[in-house]
Amino acid sequence: MHNKNGLAYISALGAAFFWSFSFVWFKIAYLAYKPITVVLFRLIISVILVLALALSLKKLQKPKSGDLKLFFLMAFFEPFLYFLGESYGLLYVSPTIAAVIVATIPLLSPLAAWYFFREKVSLKNIMGFFFSFAGVGLVVLNESGGFDASPLGIGLEFIAVFAAIAYSIVLRKVVYRYNTLTIIAFQNLIGIVLFLPIWLVVDFQDFTETPFHPQAFRAIVLLAVFASTMAFVLFTKSIRQLGVNRSNTFVNLIPVFVAIMSFFILKESMELQKIAGILVVIAGLFLAQEGKPKTTEPDSVEITNP
Predict the structure, then answer these.
(1) Cα-atom radius of gyration of the chain, to the nearest Å?
(2) pLDDT single digits (tens) 40-65
(3) pTM
(4) How far apart are alpha carbons 239 and 243 in whole angstroms?
(5) What does 232-285 look like in DSSP terms, one character per residue?
């Protein structure tokens, strides 16, 4: 049992680590390719891998006709709207700031669940919410109270946050009828269909005129393999053993990982105020999750795709 728990903790940590790298890999991919190109090829590679895994494990389910509109709505919020906000936002803000903003998703989700499903929100949820947003303020504002990062980039990242929350609301309607591999496979397939016409209009000419860039394309492959596929597999493995809430605790470490990797790989500056803000955000996230009951239902997880 202890060995199983140990492997589950390592799996959760590995998933958070791979998701953290996604913010850095986006920046590297942007050395040659535009956001829609990066997202589209990431989805294509990921769908091939997820379908291969689902088919090999005989886990791929056929959606019922009545659920197709729910799958479309999920795909519209995530990956479509989520990736539009996240990927374009990363053009204007650093990976660390983007990761801190995206990390607020677990805080806002309980508020959405209270509004739509009348789920109970604890005092610690509320305290964690305000605590973490104070930390976000420290990260994105300078000492005089002005924006230290692009307001446009911050706004785009918050569009990704709200898209993920809307996605989780729709997900609640299908999550108990379909396994997670099926959900990821079909929502990403629909996402490809949604992104393709935009790519043909916005990025296609630039893509055909851009010489092949090995480093940037390798970053896209890494995004697909590790952030969109392996991280998901590892996180699912962790949830089966530890439950959703204990696994999500490791996801709270993503901004810390991103800050460290951005400092060493992208040479991003790290001021004392930004470090303090990151620590406050993390403290708020852990506070919001403290005392939550363990969930053993493996498919009740919010499936996000950093």
Answers:
(1) 19
(2) 999 999 999 999 999 999 999 999 99
(3) 0.83
(4) 4
(5) HHHHHHHHHHH-HHHHHHHHTTHHHHHHHHHHHHS-----HHHHHHHHHHHHHH
